Amino acid sequence: MWKTSRGVRLNRARSASRPRVALVRRNRGRLWRADHGAGLVEFALVLPLVLTFFFAVFEFGHQFYARLTIRHAVAEATRYAVTGRFELDSETGEPLERAESIRLILERHAVNLALAVEDVTLDPSDGGGPEEVVNVSASFRYEYWLPGLKEILPETSFTVTTSMRNEPFEP
């Protein structure tokens, strides 16, 4: 037995097309109220916002990591400067100047980042003598590398400076 929209039961022996028409008419109204696909529409609206937030957190986390690495590299270069040691030239085996050795140490510690070294400054320029204060300063330019952010945000430049007193080494 079929049930029509009026609640009257029809015998199966009667016309089967009539109840189907009634069911189709009743379902048409439900289609307009139905929430089929609403989750997909909400997902399509929210996904760009969530991805933007995720990529922004990722990019700024990477920038923070770069800043910490540069601070560490400048601190290591300054620590190397206060010892009075020299690096050896890889080709000739001759000792490099102290200023060049300090720059080499700084670049070694910052090698794992895609940073452009703009300026490394030593004060005094030769690294100083025993018991003198040496300042190592480095300016870096951080370039955003995620697509979209590179075009929107400008490059970020920052400077890190560290000062220490040289140890009593032999000049």
Quick rundown:
This protein is an alpha+beta fold.
Q: Could you characterize the architecture of this molecule?
A:
This protein is α+β, with helices and mostly antiparallel strands. The protein is built from four helices and five strands; from the N terminus they run ββαααββαβ. The protein is rod-shaped.
Radius of gyration: 36 Å
Q: What is the chain-wise order of helices and strands?
A: EEHHHEEHE
Give the spatial strand order of the biggest sheet.
3-4-5
Give the helix/strand class. Answer: alpha+beta
Low-confidence stretches: none
What fraction strand? 15-25%
SSE layout:
Blueprint lengths: L1 E2 L5 E2 L6 H17 L4 H46 L14 H12 L6 E8 L9 E10 L6 H4 L3 E10 L6
Antiparallel strand pairs: 1-2, 3-4, 4-5
Helix pairs in contact: 2-3
Main attributes of the structure:
single chain, 4 helices, alpha+beta, 19% strand, rod-shaped, two-stranded antiparallel sheet, 171 residues
